Amino acid sequence: GENVEQHPSTLSVQEGDSAVIKCTYSDSASNYFPWYKQELGKRPQLIIDIRSNVGEKKDQRIAVTLNKTAKHFSLHITETQPEDSAVYFCAASLSSSGSARQLTFGSGTQLTVLP
Amino acid sequence: DVKVTQSSRYLVKRTGEKVFLECVQDMDHENMFWYRQDPGLGLRLIYFSYDVKMKEKGDIPEGYSVSREKKERFSLILESASTNQTSMYLCASSLSSAETQYFGPGTRLLVL
After folding, report:
1. Which of A6, A26, A95, A96 has the most CB within a 10 Å radius?
2. In this prediction, what percent of chain A has a pLDDT beyond 70?
3. Of A1, A32, A106, which is closest to B99 when you measure between CB atoms?
4. B21-52: per-residue pLDDT in tens?
5. Do B105 and A43 make contact, defined as CB atoms within 8 angstroms?
6. Cβ–Cβ contact A49 with B under 8 A
7. Can you list the alpha helix ranges (DSSP code H) found in chain A?
8. Is the minimum CB–CB distance between A33 and chain B shorter than 8 Å?
């Protein structure tokens, strides 16, 4: 099955600086890569996703890049703000059964934005 | 607005007890999922379902079973709870062929 590794496990940045979280996946057949944000005590929520036919996607201060050859993808947050502090999970989707798309998640990154 | 709810936020059970965790979604989603979340391990898929009465094993199904008798409801069952099943359990749902999964608030289960 798919295996997703995520680094770093913790990341502290000064407010206004950029943050980068990296993930690698094992199966070259994976074709969908979402990122979820989980604030303390809250449920995970999708913040951005990318498909394998695209190399980069941006949404305001958040961007995701995908390198299919190297099998890695990254989340970039620019101009970080205190409300960006959360746990971020990457995921990769390899297969579907029926109509359901299975996600394999990374282990998570605790991002802390210091004021 | 998608709403996914779980029957309990916190649950304390004894070893050997049968435990039911329920998840309900109100958006007519075909797909429903059960994950457990443990520190340093991320979210791991236990079981999922793409239709009523259909179920598929995820990555860690041992010790768990599921039931989906109605489209909106997906139950996770621990037949005989063990201490290593102490965890946060998250339910999610998604539309048919859509990728975005919407999560419930989670149930924190403690097995003593």
Report:
1. A6
2. 95
3. A32
4. 999 999 999 999 999 999 989 999 999 998 89
5. yes
6. yes
7. none
8. no
Q: How far is B57 from chain A (nearest CA, A)?
A: 10
Residue of B1, B2, B32, B43 best to disrupt the A interface, most CBs of A under 10 A: B43
Residue whose token pair is 């069952």: B77
pLDDT tens-digit profile, chain A (115 residues): 789 999 999 999 999 999 999 999 999 889 899 999 999 999 999 999 998 888 999 999 999 999 999 999 999 999 999 999 999 999 998 756 566 678 999 999 999 999 9
Nearest to A88 by CA among A33, A31, A44, A24: A44
Token pair, residue A62, equals 């958040």
Mean residue pLDDT across chain A: 93
